[in-house]
Amino acid sequence: MSKKYVVVDSIVHFKHRYVIPKDELQKLNPDAPVQLGWAEECVMAEEANPVSQRMLDEMIVDVVELDEPMALDYTRRENPHYGNIPDDLVLEMIKGWKDK
Questions:
Q1: Cα–Cα dist 23/44, whole Å
Q2: Pick from 31, 42, 75, 84: CA 20 to 30 A from residue 7's CA?
Q3: Whole-model pTM?
Q4: What is the pLDDT of residues 42-87, one digit of tens each?
């Protein structure tokens, strides 16, 4: 009989704050007055680095029980960089689930 695992899916909301120098925004389009929307576009395009972030909420969206092969499959699908890491090493990573 294989071991059982519980998979919890959640969504986490964060507040990020960006501070962008207006003169840097002006460089994006030197022939027009700066528009605040340019800053929004930089953030949406992931061109700006936040100066802070704060977790606002975490919501559980799903909880399922899986056997060991399915737990390994879920873990590998979510972490394709695991590549050909042997199952026993992936299971060791799963065992490190608890924040110490």
A1: 19
A2: 84
A3: 0.68
A4: 999 999 999 999 999 999 999 999 999 999 999 999 999 998 899 9
- The position carrying tokens 């299971």 is 91
Evaluate whether 7 touches 75 at the Cβ level (below 8 Å): no
Amino acid at 79: N
Instruction: Indicate the domain borders of the chain.
Output: 4-95
Q: What amino acid is encoded at 66 in this protein?
A: L
Structure tokens at 21: 């120098």
Cα–Cα distance measured from residue 42 to residue 49, given in angstroms and rounded to the nearest whole number: 10
Burial tier of 71 (Cβ tally within 10 Å: 0-12, 13-18, 19+) = buried
Report the 10 Å Cβ neighbour count for 74: 16
Contact between residue 66 and residue 5 where contact means Cβ atoms under 8 Å apart: yes
